[in-house]
Fold this protein.
Amino acid sequence: MSRRCELTGKSAQTGHKVSHSNHKTKRRFLPNLINVTMMSDSLGRSVRLRICANALKSVDHRGGLDAFLLKAKDVELSARALELKRSIAKKQASAAA
Protein backbone atom coordinates (compact mmCIF):
# COMPACT_ATOMS: atom_id res chain seq x y z
CA MET A 1 0.00 0.00 0.00
CA SER A 2 1.58 3.25 -1.09
CA ARG A 3 1.73 6.30 1.11
CA ARG A 4 -0.43 8.38 -1.21
CA CYS A 5 -3.78 10.09 -0.70
CA GLU A 6 -6.44 8.61 -2.99
CA LEU A 7 -8.26 11.91 -3.47
CA THR A 8 -5.62 14.64 -3.59
CA GLY A 9 -2.57 12.67 -4.74
CA LYS A 10 -0.51 13.97 -1.83
CA SER A 11 2.49 11.66 -1.26
CA ALA A 12 5.74 11.48 0.70
CA GLN A 13 8.27 14.29 0.21
CA THR A 14 11.97 14.36 0.97
CA GLY A 15 14.02 16.97 2.74
CA HIS A 16 16.67 17.54 5.38
CA LYS A 17 16.63 17.15 9.12
CA VAL A 18 18.76 20.06 10.33
CA SER A 19 20.53 19.75 13.67
CA HIS A 20 21.51 22.56 15.99
CA SER A 21 25.01 22.52 14.46
CA ASN A 22 23.38 22.87 11.00
CA HIS A 23 24.30 19.30 10.02
CA LYS A 24 21.85 18.07 7.37
CA THR A 25 20.65 14.47 7.01
CA LYS A 26 17.98 13.11 4.67
CA ARG A 27 14.47 12.50 5.97
CA ARG A 28 10.97 11.90 4.62
CA PHE A 29 7.86 13.98 5.24
CA LEU A 30 4.90 11.57 5.21
CA PRO A 31 1.29 12.66 4.64
CA ASN A 32 -1.18 12.30 7.48
CA LEU A 33 -3.10 9.32 6.02
CA ILE A 34 -6.21 7.89 7.64
CA ASN A 35 -8.62 5.13 6.65
CA VAL A 36 -12.16 6.48 6.36
CA THR A 37 -15.53 5.19 5.24
CA MET A 38 -17.44 7.86 3.33
CA MET A 39 -21.00 7.82 2.07
CA SER A 40 -21.77 8.47 -1.59
CA ASP A 41 -25.19 10.12 -1.86
CA SER A 42 -25.84 9.37 -5.53
CA LEU A 43 -24.65 5.74 -5.37
CA GLY A 44 -26.33 5.14 -2.01
CA ARG A 45 -23.45 3.14 -0.57
CA SER A 46 -20.38 3.64 1.56
CA VAL A 47 -16.84 3.66 0.21
CA ARG A 48 -13.59 2.93 2.09
CA LEU A 49 -10.73 5.28 1.18
CA ARG A 50 -7.23 6.03 2.46
CA ILE A 51 -6.98 9.80 2.40
CA CYS A 52 -5.03 12.54 4.17
CA ALA A 53 -6.62 14.65 6.90
CA ASN A 54 -6.45 17.72 4.63
CA ALA A 55 -8.54 15.92 1.99
CA LEU A 56 -11.12 15.00 4.62
CA LYS A 57 -11.54 18.71 5.44
CA SER A 58 -11.78 19.53 1.72
CA VAL A 59 -14.48 16.89 1.13
CA ASP A 60 -16.50 18.33 3.99
CA HIS A 61 -15.99 21.88 2.69
CA ARG A 62 -17.09 21.05 -0.87
CA GLY A 63 -20.29 19.39 0.31
CA GLY A 64 -19.59 15.67 0.36
CA LEU A 65 -17.74 12.97 -1.53
CA ASP A 66 -19.78 13.25 -4.74
CA ALA A 67 -19.22 17.00 -5.09
CA PHE A 68 -15.51 16.63 -4.34
CA LEU A 69 -14.96 13.88 -6.91
CA LEU A 70 -16.90 15.60 -9.67
CA LYS A 71 -14.84 18.77 -9.18
CA ALA A 72 -11.45 17.01 -8.80
CA LYS A 73 -8.93 16.62 -11.63
CA ASP A 74 -8.51 13.11 -13.02
CA VAL A 75 -4.70 13.31 -12.73
CA GLU A 76 -4.79 13.66 -8.94
CA LEU A 77 -7.19 10.78 -8.29
CA SER A 78 -6.20 7.16 -7.75
CA ALA A 79 -7.54 4.43 -10.02
CA ARG A 80 -10.25 3.48 -7.50
CA ALA A 81 -11.32 7.09 -6.97
CA LEU A 82 -11.39 7.68 -10.74
CA GLU A 83 -13.65 4.66 -11.21
CA LEU A 84 -15.86 5.95 -8.41
CA LYS A 85 -16.01 9.40 -10.05
CA ARG A 86 -17.11 7.88 -13.36
CA SER A 87 -19.84 5.80 -11.75
CA ILE A 88 -21.14 8.85 -9.83
CA ALA A 89 -21.21 10.96 -13.01
CA LYS A 90 -22.98 8.16 -14.87
CA LYS A 91 -25.57 7.76 -12.10
CA GLN A 92 -26.25 11.50 -11.93
CA ALA A 93 -26.56 11.73 -15.73
CA SER A 94 -29.11 8.90 -15.80
CA ALA A 95 -31.04 10.50 -12.92
CA ALA A 96 -31.17 13.86 -14.72
CA ALA A 97 -32.41 12.32 -17.98
